[in-house]
Amino acid sequence: MFIEEDVKLDFCDVLIKPKRSTLKSRKDVSLERAMHYKWSNVHDVVIPLWAANMDTTGTFEIAKAFQMGLCNGYWGEQAMPFVALHKHYDIEDWDSTVYFPEDTNARMVEAEFPSGSNNMAYTCGMNKKEFEKMKVVLEKHHHNGLRYICLDVANGYHQDFLDFVRKVREWAGKRFVIVAGNVVTREMTEALILAGADVVKVGIGPGSVCTTRKVAGVGYPQLSAVMECADAAHGLEGHVMADGGCTCPGDVAKAFGAGADFVMLGGMLAGHDESGGEVVDVDGTAYKRFYGMSSDTAMEKHNGGVATYRASEGKTVTVPYRGAVLDTMKEVLGGLRSACTYVGASQIKYLPKCTSFVRVNRQLNNVFGS
Ligand code: 5GP
Questions:
Q1: What's the CA-to-centroid distance between 220 and ligand 1, angstroms?
Q2: Looking at the domain assignment, is residue 10 inside a domain?
Q3: 23-39 pLDDT tens trace
Q4: Are the C-beta atoms of 41 and 94 separated by less than 8 Å?
Q5: Residue 136: pLDDT above 90?
Q6: Whose CA is nearest to atom 16 of ligand 1?
Q7: Mean pLDDT over residues 109-120, rounded?
Q8: For 305-321, what is each residue's pLDDT tens digit?
Q9: 9 CB within 6 A, ligand 1
């Protein structure tokens, strides 16, 4: 048994310290980032935010809303955020949806966005059946711009996972960007990159509907995890995606400031028109259901119940209905631009270099509620 004594921090333990800046307004800040990857030869310009591969956030509807945002100049950039589609869509769903032929694609062509404007990532779990399904979808739709793979397991520390990443890289060659996780420590970040991941997904236990810390007592404070894994990944020309624990736009800014190349959002994007599911009325207030992908709800929906040898590690909640997802994204992007102006970062990629954190005892004034 061993106790690490140095302090590890969460988003709520710090604030970003303002610095002298020559940026006059949020308009001077670019949230686009040109990406080049360690293993794949995909070269992209992106807004580095991803909707999580959960039933209610990894939806085709959210991907489409983001694409429409690009067509309508909503992002104020020539790029858009991504969506990791949840892994329960079947091949036919992909076949009928990947182009969005009826409107979005036509408008994209009209606006002269290349087919590379596809903002979807294919999520694959670690088993043979899912791997086979992924190969079919990706072979069919690679020419439509589908070029990101998200290899997602709750516990990225399993030796089999490294073998799986190697196997997928062998098949993918340089054609696909591989995002793999989740882990929270340097050595496993390095191992995943060396096994063939371009981007390592970081986060165990911080999620809004995750109960791993409670059920298993396992986890790692997310800000420190992102800082440490980013440092390890960047040393190998890899990248990291901070996944979980962002509760407000300020947390997203802190994740980027800590070195994240991408940030993945679940709870912050739940409860919207594009999240699937019904709006329920409780005493005159509208709500939508949101649940963890290891919750009883998800396991009943997809696996016919929770297996007897395991406990559910996610919860089911109702969140207030929040309308269109683009309005929420506007707040997130506005917050990020603001953070960049406070520290003098003209581009999102400069945020880590410009960020100093201060540790705080109290982050928010909640006298009138949070
Ligand atoms: P959020 O943005 O809601 O704080 O976190 C989203 C992330 O939580 C997801 O991308 C995923 O990594 C994680 N997550 C989603 N569902 C579950 C679950 O049921 N259990 C656990 N442990 N993590 C989950």
A1: 14
A2: no
A3: 988 889 999 999 999 99
A4: no
A5: yes
A6: 292
A7: 63
A8: 767 667 789 999 999 99
A9: no
Instruction: Dump the DSSP string for 276-325.
Output: -S-EEEETTEEEEEEE-TTBHHHHHHHHSS--TTS---B-EEEEE----H
Q: Is residue 366 part of a domain?
A: no
- Taking residue 78's Cβ as centre, other Cβ atoms within 10 Å add up to 13
In a domain, 159, yes or no: yes
Q: Counting Cβ atoms within 10 Å, is residue 149 exposed (0-12), middle (13-18) or buried (19+)?
A: buried
Kindly tell me if the per-residue pLDDT of 174 is higher than 90.
Answer: yes
Confirm or reject: Cβ of 269 under 6 Å from ligand 1: no
Alpha carbon distance 123, 10 (integer Å): 27
- The answer to whether residues 217 and 313 touch, using CB atoms and an 8 Å cutoff, is no
CA separation for the pair 248, 49 (Å, rounded): 14
Query: What's the number of domains the chain is made of?
Result: 1
Check if 354 is active-site. Answer: no
| Range(s) of the domain holding residue 66 | 16-359
Q: Which helix (H) or strand (E) holds 149?
A: strand 148-152
Q: Does pLDDT of 215 surpass 90?
A: yes
Kindly report the CATH number assigned to the domain that includes residue 130. 3.20.20.70
**Ligand 1 pocket check for 317: Cβ under 6 Å:** no
Assigned domain for 234 exists: yes
| The pLDDT of residue 115 | 53
Phi-psi region of 303 (alpha: psi -120 to 50; beta: other; left: phi over 0): alpha
- pLDDT on residue 114: 47
> What is the best residue among 210, 214, 290 to mutate for testing ligand 1's pocket, by most ligand atoms within 8 Å of CB?
210
Residue 181, ligand 1, Cβ within 6 A: no
149-158, 276-285, 299-308: segment of lowest average pLDDT? 299-308
| Cis peptide bond N-terminal to 182, omega within 30 | yes
